[in-house]
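Late entry, adenosine-5'-triphosphate complex.
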Amino acid sequence: MTSSTAEPAVSVRNVYKAFGKRPQEIVRQVKEGAERSDLTHLGTAAVIDASFDIPPGQIYVVMGLSGSGKSTLIRTLNGLQPPTDGVVEIMGQDITAASPAELRAIRREHLAMVFQHFALLPHRTVAQNAAYALEVRGESKEAQRQRAEEALAMVGLDGWGDHRPDELSGGMRQRVGLARALAADTDIMLMDEAFSALDPLIRRDMQTQLLELQKDLGKTIVFITHDLNEAIRLGDRIAMMKDGRIVQQGTAYELVTQPADDYVARFVEEIDPASIPAPGGAA
Ligand SMILES: Nc1ncnc2c1ncn2[C@@H]1O[C@H](COP(=O)(O)OP(=O)(O)OP(=O)(O)O)[C@@H](O)[C@H]1O
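Prediction complete; structure with ligand written out below:
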């Protein structure tokens, strides 16, 4: 486990993201105490005052119901949707102040994304899909092939490199999505509902595989889910979102034993604290 005193891999400071014609005005009014529900005539306050640091090597899970702001929050981390207000730092670099060229470089070097619906290119082989980030970087065909094969082996898909995505099951396609992120060899992986489209047993296998890989690779992972059991299984820390706000963040044990409010308490009421690793204790 990486020391929590290390410089954060991801640092999010008072981030707001609003949609609509006048996003700045929405943020201004929210800061003055307006309720999100009173501002719908102006647009949507999708993320409100999010702050957290993720030390290198940790899995940080963002969880919450549909519409709570999870996807918007993760998109502020890779600059796909820049925050309306606040600062995001990736490996110490402020992406909110970066030029488009700097942002592209930060993304290329540090960030890989795994999506719910795989986002594979159908006319390319599995190996070409896995190597996509390396192709974009202009690496040699040989380097692409080698890294793709290594990454496919890591996710249990050795020998599948020459197949097309439509010859694979859903679980296998998601492994290709994961291999593509691993081949990119970035410090940080952003995973948006990455396992949510999979059948329960395959989903559990993927969680196990991710935890196994994580032991060796020590990536920093931001993992979005609406599934509490997945959050508990994967997260070193969990942020619970509601209506755009992070209402609590902590270890699974903290959320279950010391819920910050009734909302979190209701969310976690089915979970037996004895089933969760206590801080410093065994699983
Ligand atoms: N591009 C957009 N334009 C306008 N409103 C948006 C946009 N993207 C998201 N929203 C709104 O922001 C709020 C948060 O959406 P977001 O997709 O981040 O939530 P979520 O927790 O990821 O939900 P889900 O699990 O359904 O994906 C919602 O009210 C949504 O309608």
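Residues 57 and 219 are 5 Å apart (CA to CA). Will revisit in the morning.
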